[in-house]
Amino acid sequence: MERVCVIGAGSSGIAACQVLSARGIEYDCLELGSEVGGNWRYQNDNGMSSAYRSLHINTSRQMMEFKSYPMPSHLPVYPSHFQIAEYFDDFVKHFGFRDRIRFRTEVVSVTAAPGGYTVTSRDRDSGEETSRVYRSVIVANGHHWSPRMPEPAFPGSFDGEEIHAHHYKTPEPFADKRVLVLGIGNSACDIAVETSRVSKRTFLAMRRGAHIMPKYLFGMPTDHLTTSPLARFAPKWLQTLSMSMMLRLSRGKLSDYGLPEPSHGVFSAHPTVSDDLLTRLGHGDITVKPNVRELDGSGVVFEDGSREDIDVIFYCTGYKFDFPFLDGAEFPAVSSEDNEVSLYRRVVDPDHPGLYFVGLIQPLGAIMPLAEAQAEWIADLESGRAALPPVPEMKAEITSYREGLRRRYIASKRHTVEVDFLHYQRELKAERKAGAARV
Ligand SMILES: NC(=O)C1=CN([C@@H]2O[C@H](COP(=O)(O)OP(=O)(O)OC[C@H]3O[C@@H](n4cnc5c(N)ncnc54)[C@H](OP(=O)(O)O)[C@@H]3O)[C@@H](O)[C@H]2O)C=CC1
Q1: From residue 425, how far is each of 73, 270, 381, 401 by CA, in Å?
Q2: Whose CA is closest to atom 39 on ligand 1?
Q3: Which residues have CB under 6 Å of ligand 1?
Q4: pTM, whole model, 2 decimals?
Q5: φ and ψ at 42, to 5 degrees?
Q6: Cβ contact 181:316 at 8 Å
Q7: Among protein residues, the one whose CA lies closest to atom 45 of ligand 1
Q8: If we measure between CA atoms, which residue out of 240, 230, 239, 297 comes closest to residue 264?
Q9: How far apart are CA 53 and CA 62, in angstroms?
Q10: Is the peptide bond before 152 cis (omega within 30 degrees of 0)?
Q11: If you take atom 29 of ligand 1, which residue's CA is the nearest one?
């Protein structure tokens, strides 16, 4: 019973496997699909990838690469999902732990057991169930795969097709259709841009405005600016002011493109990154609408009272955090319907020693190197190099993190696990140091 179980072999799961391997900690990794890569494996046969055919990451290669294995320099600054999946394959091959991953294995339950956790899994091919007790469990099953539809549902009924962004793959099936895309996150912008090239009309409806960030500013990948020395040392208000000014200088006012001006600051919402949206709006190929008021048979009525005939609605309304193998009553820390999470430093469930979550964060930046840093801390804890603070202290940290979120971000189910890339890296480093001093 000295092993750790890693659930999922997506980007966070393989980051954890690599660190455990390097630190000599025995583990098994269980993966539902036939390949590594999770969300970044297009048409992943685990059914959990939300990648569409044209997807490119919206953080730069230098921001997303694992620190232990830089991305090859021949890759573009913003690689495609094909290139990212290949990079993950190479990562696993390079560190030689593919044989530690049990593919096509579904975790059906994790329950507390004396000294650890019983993990029950099912072989997808034989249907055979196996239970094994592990000392610790690292959950890395991703948080962008379980579709969240509008809540409450819009009144009325709709005769056309309703599709969540998770299921969108290519624009061709929507040629000559009247398409409505709902939301103003990254999925909504990408899907509206794509469908607008083939559709009869594309409408983009949103309940609030968003700051649209370009992929490049002044010839530099935008996230190189957000990790620049200014971002490292300047207070948040100064970063906000300078980014707002740079956006204003480079692309003018959003209302000039027909978008609502956001009423929140530029770092008060998860960034929406799109180079194409403003151009498509300028071409008149996307029409902006306010939120949906009601579904109306062959069309939709919007909050401004206008009505449009619509054939297809894309709900780009985000994702639910979903751990189908954890019973909500036993693990309330991650079982809120509203994506609220109660984890010490976004990783540790204070009430369940040895239960960790990797990659359950939404950075201004990329998850991968942060998942790697989280795994290093977990490895410290597992190898006895570091210890956790007392439970009340962990709970106080969770409360203060939540208060910080409430102060900074607009209230939305998409803003419950936000972290600043640099700040969170520093936080984990400090925690590892403090943890070592507690031993
Ligand atoms: N190229 C890339 O790297 C891509 C990355 N992503 C990432 O995937 C994650 C998920 O993105 P995405 O799928 O866009 O989801 P998000 O959760 O980021 O965005 C959801 C959008 O839907 C809106 N919304 C939710 N409920 C309603 C409702 N009832 N009525 C109207 N609007 C509603 C939200 O508004 P509100 O803010 O008001 O809640 C928000 O605009 C993000 O981390 C994103 O960055 C996604 C696509 C591409």
Answers
A1: 24, 18, 17, 15
A2: 412
A3: 55-58, 144, 150, 165, 182-188, 190, 206-208, 270, 291, 316-319, 362, 412, 414
A4: 0.96
A5: -55, 135
A6: yes
A7: 186
A8: 240
A9: 23
A10: yes
A11: 150
Residue nearest to atom 4 of ligand 1 (CA): 186
Q: How far is ligand 1, taken at its centre, from the CA of residue 184, in Å?
A: 6
Q: What are the boundaries of each domain within the chain?
A: 4-146+319-437, 150-315
Ligand 1, pocket-test mutation among 414, 416, 417, 418, most atoms within 8 A of CB: 414
3-state class (DSSP) for residue 9? coil
Asked whether this chain's domains 4-146+319-437 and 150-315 adopt the same fold, the reply is: yes
Across the chain, how many H-helices and E-strands are there?
11, 25
Atom of ligand 1 nearest to the CA of 58: 3
> Token pair 């239970």 is at which residue?
131
Question: What value does the CA radius of gyration of the chain take, rounded to a whole number of Å?
Answer: 22
Q: Which CATH superfamily is domain 150-315 in?
A: FAD/NAD(P)-binding domain (3.50.50.60)
Dump strand ranges (E) for 3-88.
Answer: 4-7, 27-30
**439 residues of the chain, pLDDT tens digit each:** 579 999 999 999 999 999 999 999 999 999 999 999 999 999 999 999 999 999 999 999 999 999 999 999 999 999 999 999 999 999 999 999 999 999 999 999 999 999 999 999 999 999 999 999 999 999 999 999 999 999 999 999 999 999 999 999 999 999 999 999 999 999 999 999 999 999 999 999 999 999 999 999 988 999 888 777 777 788 888 889 999 999 999 999 999 999 999 999 999 999 999 999 999 999 999 999 999 999 999 999 999 999 999 999 999 999 999 999 999 999 999 999 999 999 999 999 999 999 999 999 999 889 999 999 999 999 999 999 999 999 999 999 999 999 999 999 999 999 999 999 999 999 999 999 999 999 9
- Provide ipTM, 2 decimals: 0.99
- Which fold would CATH assign to domain 4-146+319-437? FAD/NAD(P)-binding domain (3.50.50)
